Target: Nucleoporin protein Ndc1-Nup
Amino acid sequence: MMLSWRSPAAIFMSFFSFHLSQLLFSISLSAVSSPQPKFRLILPVFLAAAAVSGYLSAVSFCGLNGRVGFKGFASGLFYAFLYIYKRRWVLNFPNIQRPPFFSFKMEIPSATARALKLSAAAYLFSSLLLVLLTERFIFAPPIGSAAAEINPSEPLLAALEESSPTSLLKYLAYLDLCMVCENNVDYWRRAALFEESGETYRRVVAVCLRPLEQIASNLGQTLEVSSDGGKAYQKFDQLQPSTEPQQNSKCYELINNFQLYTWSARAIASLTAHSRKEDRFGVAQLSGSNAAVISTLLSCLLAVETFMGKKTSLQPSHPLMGPAGIKWATLSTGRRDVRTGKKRGGPLYSKADAMADVLRSSINCIVCAFHDDMLTNAKAGTLEKDWITSGRPPFGSREMLLQKLNLFLDAQAS
Model:
C-alpha cells in the first residue's frame, strides 16, 4: 500500500519510526554503559542498533528518497565506531579534596595537548580558507560554446559592474581581469576586449578607472589638498590630537582597500600597452581612452605620494630647455611633511608605498609601449593635448600631470 507523504498515516509512521530509532539507540547505549558489559555480545548489537537508528531517523525526516536511508545507516554506524573508540561510556570525575596547585599541575599536560590540537586545526582551516578565497575564478564561458563565440566578456563585465563594492565576487572579477590583461594564457579573452564596436573596451576602461578616480579624489578631500592655478598646497597645518585619529581612520579606510586599486591599475595599464599591437580596429585610440588612463594613473600617483608626504608643487622657475625649445619641468623636491614622515613604519605608509610602486610600474608599462609616440608628441608640443585629458583631473592639475609624465619619459630615455 502506497502512502502519501502528507497523509496522516505517513505522518504517524514517521513519528513512530523516529521514536523507535531513539528507543533502539538508548537501549544500545544503556547496554554498553553497564558496569560489567560483555563486549563480545554487546558491541555487535550496539553497532547494529546505532546503524538501524540512523537509518530510521533519516527515513522518518526525508522519506525514502534516493540514498537517504543508506546515508543515515552509514552515519549511525560511523557514530557507533567513534563512540566505542573514544570510550564515551566512561565518565571521568575530577579529583577532589586536592590543593589547587596540584590540581593545576595535573591538568597541564592535558591542557597543553588540547591547546596544540586546537591551534593546529585552526591554522589548517584558516590556510585552506585562504587558498579557497584567493583561488582565481574564471568569469568566462567554456571554449567552443555559443556564448564564447558571441560575447565572452559579458560574464566578467557583469560581475564587475553589478556586484556590490565590498563583495568577494567583485574582488575575484578584478583579479580575473588583471590575469587576462597581463598574461597570454587567455589570449582569446583579451582579444575579445578589442571588438569592433569598442563598447566592451570602454566598459573595461570605465570599471578600472572608477576606483582609481575615487581614491584620488577621496584622498584629496581627506588630506584637504586644494589646487589653484596649477599649484597644489596642503592646508592641514597642525592637527589637534582630537582630530588626528579621525583623519587616520579615513585614510585607513581608503588605503586598506589597496589590493582592488592595484589590480585595477595593473589591468588597465597592461590592456593599454597591449592595445599598441593587438587593437586591430583602433578602438583605444579613437575613443580617447589612452589619455584618460594615463591621466588617472598620474593623478592617483600624485595623491598617494602626497599622502606619503612628498612635495608635489610645480617648479616655479628655471625650467629645463630641451630640444626644439621644449620646456622640461621637474617636480620640486622640497621639504617633506613631518607628520607623514614620522609614520613611515606604520601600516598605512607601507600600503601606500606598495600602491605607489604599482602605479609607477603601470605608468612605466604604458610609457614603454608608447615611448616613440610620446617623444614625437613632445617634440611637436602636443604631448599635453594627446596624453592629458582636457577636464580637471581627480587630483592635482593638468600642468602637474604633464610634469610627472615628462619625468617618466626622461627616466625611460635614460
Q: What stands out?
A: The two ends are 91 Å apart (CA to CA). Confidence is low (pLDDT under 50) at residues 1-5, 225-245, 317-342.
